[in-house]
Amino acid sequence: MSNLDYLNSGKVRNDWSLAEIEAIYNQPFNDLLFAAQLIHRQNFNPNEVQTSTLLSIKTGACPEDCAYCPQSGHYNTGLSKEKLMAVQKVVEKAQQAKKNGATRFCMGAAWRSPRDKDLDVVIEMVRQVKDMGLETCVTLGMLTDEQAGKLAEAGLDYYNHNLDTSPEYYEQIITTRSYDNRLDTLQNVRDAGINVCSGGIIGMGEKVNDRYGLLMQLANMPEHPQSVPINMLVAVPGTPLGEVEKLDEFDFIRMIATARIIMPNSYVRLSAGREDMNEQTQALCYFAGANSIFYGEKLLTTANPEAEADSVLFKRLGIQPEQRHHSKEEVEAEAADMAAQAAEQTTSDKKPLFYDATEVN
What value does the mean pLDDT take over residues 336-342? Predict the structure, then answer.
C-alpha cells in the first residue's frame, strides 16, 4: 500500500500532519473525488442529504470585528439591526421549515456571548422547537461550561462555533476574540454532551496552507465535529473582505473532498456560497462527500438557494432529503403519546349502555 493509499483509506485519526493533508488535497482531481466518494459510501447513504434551516433570531450590532461579517457593529453594510425574536415567532418559522422538509432547525444570534437572561429565552426556543420533532442547533458566540450545561439540559442537539481559518491567518480576520477562545467554547460544548458543529470559511484571502491548517485543527480535535460546515466567502460590500477576489470553485470542491477523507464519519455541510454556485459545482460537491445543506432562502443575512430550487436539483441527481433518525427514547415517548391519545379517544367514543329517562328533549 502506497502512502497516498493509506491516507485515502478512511481510517479515523486525530493526529493528521499538515504534509499529509496537503498530499490528499493536491492529488489528481479525479483521484481525490474517487477516494472521497468511496469513503462517503462506506459511512453514509450517497444519495441522501441532511437538510437544515437557519434563522437569525437576533441580527446585527455584534461587538466582534470578523472581517467577513455584515452583522459586525464595526462596519456599515446597511444591515438593519433587530432585537431578539419572540419565542412564538421562532416557533412559527420552525413549523414552516419542517413543512418544507427540514429535519434540523438552527438559530443564530449576533452576540459575543449570550447574557443569562437572553440564554433563558433561547432555551425556551430550543425546548419548543424540539417538541415539534425537529433537531435543534444554535450559534450564540462564546459559551461558558455552565451555559453549555443549561443548553444540554434543554435538549439542544448541536452547537455551531466555527474556527473560520487556520491559527496562523486568524488575526487577519478577527482581533476581538482569540483562537483559544473558540477552542475553549468547543470543549465546553463537548463536555456538556452536545454535538459539535464547526468548520470554516475559504476564499478570505488566505494561502492554501491556511486551508490545510484549518482542516488539521478540525480533524485533530479530541473527537471530530459531528457536523463540518465548509463555507465559501460571500463578499459583502462594506466589510473589509467586500472586494476579495472570488474563489476558484475547484479549490472549494477539493476542500469538501479532503474534509470527507480525513473526517469520514462527520456530516460535511455545503454551506454559505451556494447561491453563487451553478448546479454542476453543487453536484460535484455532493459527489465529493458533502451530505448536508442549509435549506431555504437565507443564511442569517446572506442569500441561499430557495428550497424549491434545491428540490429540483435533488430530483435531477436522484438525491433524497435524509429522514431524521429518532432516538430510542424519542420513539418510546412518541408511542406513549399515541397510546394515551388513542385511549382518550376510545373513552370519548363509548356510548352509554342505558339512556337517561329523566332527560327531557
Answer: 61
